[in-house]
Design brief:
Blueprint (H helix, E strand, L loop, with lengths): L1 H8 L7 E5 L2 E7 L5 E9 L2 E10 L6 H11 L3
Antiparallel strand pairs: 1-2, 2-3, 3-4
Length: about 80
């Protein structure tokens, strides 16, 4: 549901969506059992492109997850 809210309500800010820099954005979602999920995306020619999703276990978004999303964004 959160992805749909961002896709059809863009631009959307906190607390649902926040910028990560370098053209990346993070959708924040609460899922079952008190866990937190994140989906990293970019906007390309007016379209939302999902690059990476993960269960968040630390307070800060792990650099490896950001790097993976950047690789996928660049087509690598």
């Amino acid at each position: 549901m959160d992805l749909k809210d961002v896709e059809y309500g863009w631009p959307v800010g906190m607390p649902l969506c926040r910028p990560l820099g370098r053209g990346l954005w993070e959708v924040r979602s609460s899922i079952s059992n008190g866990r937190i999920a994140r989906v990293i995306f970019c906007v390309d020619h007016g379209r939302m492109v999902i690059l990476h999703g993960f269960i968040k276990k630390t307070r800060k978004t792990p650099p490896g997850d950001i790097e993976l999303a950047l690789q996928r964004k660049s087509g690598g």
